[in-house]
């Protein structure tokens, strides 16, 4: 019974939180918990303590990896551009579409937040509408608030 139950008359009687003919299926969903607090990132089911991703784009132990999805940088580029520099594709709709993050301006790239902080952090280098590079970081804190630091 894989150490998770007692064999009685050649049948496994499983301890709590285990099931299956050999008690080899854990009912504990902790390993399936994604960083957003959802089971399998809301894109799969937790079976025997392992995520079975139902959305084929997503994979990984908690269905959080997506090779074909836009990255954090590309996803927020237009909003950072309009909020920081008042230009880009979302310039006209900036106040409606782009107020979902707190923004802080810094005067150089070495003033951007660095890896090693408790919040997940993405360093971004994107081209603006004038074909110039601009730099920003995107992070989400434990309260779910998005924070952007952008180089002026």
What does this structure look like?
By secondary structure, this protein is mainly beta. The protein has two domains: 62 residues, Laminin (Ribbon), CATH 2.10.25.10; 82 residues, Hormone receptor fold (Irregular), CATH 4.10.1240.30. The protein contains two helices and twelve strands, in the order ββββββββααββββ. Strands 9-12-11-10 form a four-stranded mixed beta sheet, covered by helices on one side. A two-stranded antiparallel ribbon has the order 1-2. Strands 3-4 form a two-stranded antiparallel ribbon. Strand 11 and strand 12 form a beta hairpin. The longest helix is centred in the middle third of the chain and has 14 residues. It is elongated. The termini are far apart.
Question: Based on DSSP secondary structure assignment, what is the total number of beta strands?
Answer: 12
Q: Which structural class best describes the helix and strand composition? A: mainly beta
Gyration radius (Cα, Å) is: 22 Å
Distance between the termini: 62 Å
Q: Strand order across the biggest sheet?
A: 9-12-11-10
Q: Percentage of helical residues?
A: 10-25%
Q: If you average the pLDDT, what whole number results?
A: 89
Low-confidence regions: none
CATH topology of the largest domain: Hormone receptor fold
Instruction: Please provide the ordered H/E string of secondary-structure elements.
Output: EEEEEEEEHHEEEE
Q: Could you say what the CATH architecture of the largest domain is?
A: Irregular
Shape, principal axes of CA atoms: elongated
Q: Tell me the major beta sheet.
A: 4 strands, mixed
Number of helices: 2
Domain count: the total is 2
Q: What's the CATH first level of the largest domain?
A: Few Secondary Structures
What percentage of the residues does DSSP assign to strands (E)? 25-35%
GO molecular function: C-X3-C chemokine binding; collagen binding involved in cell-matrix adhesion; fibronectin binding; integrin binding; laminin binding; protein kinase binding
Pfam families: EGF_2, Integrin_B_tail
Protein name: ITB1 protein
Keywords: Disulfide bond, EGF-like domain, Glycoprotein, Membrane, Repeat, Signal, Transmembrane, Transmembrane helix
């Amino acid at each position: 019974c894989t150490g998770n139950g007692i064999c009685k008359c050649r049948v496994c009687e499983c301890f709590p939180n285990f099931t299956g003919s050999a008690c080899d299926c854990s009912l504990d969903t902790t390993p399936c918990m994604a960083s957003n607090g959802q089971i399998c990132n809301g894109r799969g089911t937790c079976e025997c303590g392992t995520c079975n991703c139902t959305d084929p784009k997503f994979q990984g132990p908690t269905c959080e990896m997506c090779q074909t999805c836009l990255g954090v940088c590309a996803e927020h580029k237009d909003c950072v551009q309009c909020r920081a520099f008042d230009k880009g594709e979302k310039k006209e709709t900036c106040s409606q579409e782009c107020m979902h993050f707190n923004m802080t301006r810094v005067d150089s790239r070495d003033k951007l937040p660095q890896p090693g902080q408790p919040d997940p952090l993405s360093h971004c280098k994107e081209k603006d509408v004038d074909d110039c590079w601009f730099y920003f970081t995107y992070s989400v804190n434990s309260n779910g608030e998005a924070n952007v630091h952008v180089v002026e």
